């Protein structure tokens, strides 16, 4: 363990020079090819989720991932209150799921798209995903507009016969020679 303390928030210093605008940022980041994920959470009878590309492997010990969620979203609120979430890395053929959770379908109807089950923890589980994870929050950090949730992986299912769905240059992309 480190011999220093880390804060629970990431204090961002004021910029010395003007930052690029939102349109320029989106254009620049569109060059970053990313796996498409759906982050979901459940509290009582309420299930919520969003499509996300800001996901990364965090550590092998403990096995953990990091997800970035808009701080004012209902999803961030439920994850913070329950201390858990699930994640599905979408596969080619699951574009409709990605679109639904990206906002093209009203929140109460999103779980009607795709085949959903439930992890033993009660969190939503998407069947047919490249990888599905059930996570327990082990840390969180606010960055101003988003919350970075570190989730220890409690359960995992992997489908090695499916290629991941990718997002690049504002559209879905696919790996050739996989499937």
Description:
The chain is α+β, with helices and mostly antiparallel strands and 179 residues long. The chain has a single domain, classed as Pnp Oxidase, Chain A (Roll). The strands form 3 sheets. It has a 7-stranded antiparallel sheet. A 3-stranded antiparallel sheet has the order 1-11-12, with no helix packed on it. The longest helix is centred in the middle third of the chain and has 10 residues. The protein is globular, with a radius of gyration of 17 Å. The termini are far apart.
Defining traits:
globular, 179 residues, 7-stranded antiparallel beta sheet, 12 strands, Pnp Oxidase, Chain A, alpha+beta, 3 helices, 15% helix, 3-stranded antiparallel beta sheet
Topology:
Elements: H1 22-29, E1 34-35, E2 37-43, E3 46-52, E4 55-60, E5 63-70, H2 74-82, E6 84-89, H3 95-104, E7 116-118, E8 124-126, E9 131-142, E10 146-158, E11 166-168, E12 171-173
Main-sheet strand order equals: 3-2-6-9-10-5-4
Number-wise, the strands total 12
- Per the CATH scheme, the topology name is Pnp Oxidase, Chain A
What is the straight-line distance between the termini?
41 Å
Describe the global form: globular
Name of the top-level CATH class: Mainly Beta
**Share of helix, binned:** 10-25%
**Rg, Å, rounded:** 17 Å
Please state roughly what percent of the residues sit in beta strands, choosing from under 5%, 5-15%, 15-25%, 25-35%, 35-45% or over 45%: 35-45%
Average predicted confidence as pLDDT: 90
CATH architecture: Roll
The CATH superfamily turns out to be: Electron Transport, Fmn-binding Protein, Chain A
Q: Report the order of strands and helices.
A: HEEEEEHEHEEEEEE
How many structural domains are formed by the residues?
1
Low-pLDDT regions: none
Largest sheet: 7 strands, antiparallel
């Amino acid at each position: 363990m480190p011999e220093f303390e880390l804060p629970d928030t990431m204090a961002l210093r004021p910029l010395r020079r003007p930052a690029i605008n939102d349109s320029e940022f989106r254009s620049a980041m569109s060059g970053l090819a990313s796996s498409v994920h759906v982050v979901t959470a459940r509290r009582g009878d309420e299930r919520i989720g969003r499509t996300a590309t800001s996901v990364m492997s965090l550590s092998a010990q403990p096995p953990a991932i990091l997800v970035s969620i808009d701080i004012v979203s209902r999803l961030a609120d439920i994850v913070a209150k329950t201390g858990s979430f699930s994640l599905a890395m979408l596969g080619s053929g699951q574009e409709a799921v990605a679109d639904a959770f990206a906002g093209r379908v009203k929140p109460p109807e999103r779980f009607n798209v795709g085949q959903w089950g439930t992890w033993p923890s009660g969190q939503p589980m998407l069947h047919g995903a490249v990888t599905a994870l059930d996570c327990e929050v082990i840390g969180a950090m606010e960055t101003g507009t988003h919350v970075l949730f570190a989730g220890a992986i409690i359960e995992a299912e992997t489908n090695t016969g499916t290629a991941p769905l990718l997002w690049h240059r504002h559209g879905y992309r696919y790996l050739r020679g996989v499937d």
